[in-house]
Each structure stands twice: as structure tokens, then as C-alpha cells.
Amino acid sequence: MRDPLVIHWPKGIEARGEIRQQFVHAVDIAATILDITGAPAPAVVGGHEQIPMHGKSIAATFDNPTAPAPRKP
To answer: Do β-strands 44-45 and 48-49 pair in parallel, antiparallel, or remain unpaired?
Structure first.
């Protein structure tokens, strides 16, 4: 099953109306946001130590339709 993902960031993505075919997962969204903002992943949230992030940034796909997928299906 595939679900579409639409990313809209006019000041950060030059490509317009293009479709990408790379396989990504929902866990990649947070990793991507941290990557493009330069923010570190928090070590502790609400007093709870966080596990390592499993997501991988998909930012390379924003302007490069042939960028390698961060993971395999």
C-alpha cells in the first residue's frame, strides 16, 4: 500500500508539482524537519529519555528526483 505525501515549502523547495518515487516512512518526517531546520533531536522530553530516532531525512529528494531513497520497502 502507498499513501501520498505532499510537502509544501516554497522558500525551501525549488521543484514545483513534481512526483517522487522514493520509498519513505512516516518516521522520516520528524527526521526531515530536524534536518532542514538544523535542530537537534531532543535527548529528553517531559522528563523521559528518548530512544534513538529511527527516521532518516528525505530532504535530498526535494529538488533531486533521482536522490537515493533513505530506506528500502
So the answer is: antiparallel
Secondary structure of residue 52 in the 3-state scheme: coil
Cβ 55 vs Cβ 29: under 8 Å: yes
HSE-up (13 A, CA, CB side) for residue 1:
1
Instruction: Give the dihedral sign, CA 53/63/23/5.
Output: positive
CA distance 59 to 47: 30
Which of 40, 42, 45, 4 is CA-nearest to residue 21?
Answer: 4
pLDDT in tens, 1-52: 778 888 999 999 999 889 999 999 999 999 999 999 999 999 999 999 999 9
7 C-beta neighbours (distance < 10 Å), count = 14
